[in-house]
Design goal:
By secondary structure, the chain is α/β, with parallel strands linked by helices. The chain contains 11 helices and 12 strands. Helix 7 (245-256) packs across helix 11 (320-333). The longest helix is centred in the first third of the chain and has 22 residues, at 92-113.
Length: 338
């Protein structure tokens, strides 16, 4: 589809996932535009990212389908950022209920509520990878390529959104953020945990892999650009800079005055550590720092191109160095690393 839709900015905009890392950044960006922001939160949500912000809170959840239509009532736009983002889960079925069934139910509720514009936050996790160079929106992938329940659930959720665009005219644009870093990572995310450990001097070794790092505020800006300029039904990668893990750790060391780790471990050598970590995770319920799915993903450098978003949306990400510096400063202020 090629159409761009105008949105009545006087109507409220609903943001899901506003207590989380990317959702909170999108919420802040919308408030900076002077928008009337409504958020959908679970009763148990961590609300640190919403402290003192002028937003309307509606209680509900993606799994609570009855809560979705009332939350959308009167809204002109929807930013669906919420997702269960973990690389290890005790109960994968719960992740599918939130990420796939919840997304489909929310999109159907948006159609029923007459929402004019939707930005759906997918992930580069659903895209194919290249052995050399950076993948883009056209790099093919299949469900069989997806490693672990998170990737599979996000793949199926994007398929569901795209089907509703084609079959029922859902006014949605899809954005695929890469690996966000920066302030507000309260959980923290798996990448945030790496930054915390490295900045604290607790990462003596690394594996040979690579990530595309992007400042979370640039991801948020990309969401707003997608709302304003994106083509309905299209996907846009919101990424930043391709970096090896060794280079990421070197830059963190330079920012913190530490010595970067020099020991590069082959992935098979870390496999037994992940097995033990997952066994402990099943006993304690805490997400392991090293997981088998994480190691499977690490076999491929997750490099991506944001050229389409730059060309069509005017997307302009800053250097990854700024995101790392802002992340470290925020983690220090939050007492999560020295």
């Amino acid at each position: 589809m090629q159409s761009r839709l105008m949105v009545d900015s006087s109507r409220p905009v609903l943001v899901t996932g506003a207590s989380g890392f990317v959702g909170a950044a999108v919420m802040r960006a919308l408030l900076a535009q002077g928008r009337d922001v409504r958020v959908l939160l679970r009763p148990s949500s961590d609300r640190r990212n919403l402290a003192a912000l002028p937003v309307e809170i509606r209680t509900g959840a993606l799994e609570d389908h009855a809560s979705l239509l009332p939350a959308l009532a009167g809204c002109g736009a929807l930013f669906h950022v919420a997702a269960d983002y973990r690389l290890w889960v005790r109960d994968p079925a719960a992740m599918y209920r939130a990420n796939v069934e919840g997304t489909r139910a929310l999109m159907e509720a948006a159609l029923a509520a007459g929402v004019e514009r939707i930005v759906y936050t997918s992930s580069v996790a659903v895209l194919g990878l290249l052995s050399e160079g950076s993948a883009d929106e056209t790099t093919p992938s299949t469900l069989e390529d997806m490693i672990g329940p998170y990737k599979r659930s996000k793949f199926l959720a994007e398929v569901a959104v795209s089907a509703l665009v084609r079959e029922r005219g859902l006014p949605a644009v899809i954005v695929n953020p890469s690996t966000p870093i920066g302030p507000g990572d309260v959980k923290p995310t798996p990448t945030g945990r790496i930054i915390v450990e490295a900045a604290s001097g607790r990462m003596p070794a690394y594996v040979d892999t690579g990530l595309n790092l992007v400042h979370v505020d640039d991801v948020a800006a990309g969401h707003l650009l997608a709302e304003a300029k994106g083509r309905t039904g299209e996907r846009y990668i919101l990424g930043g800079e391709d970096l090896s893990l060794a280079e990421i750790l070197r830059r963190i060391a330079a920012l913190t005055g530490r010595t970067p780790p020099k020991l590069a471990l082959p992935i098979p050598a870390v496999w037994p550590i992940a097995l033990v970590a997952e066994a402990l995770g099943r006993l304690t319920g805490r997400e392991p720092f090293v997981t088998l799915d994480g190691l499977r993903m690490a076999r491929h450098k997750m490099f991506f191109s944001s050229a389409k978003a730059m060309r069509e949306l005017g997307y302009a990400p800053r250097p990854a160095e700024q995101g790392l510096a802002d992340a470290i400063a925020w983690f220090r202020a939050a007492g999560m690393c020295p």
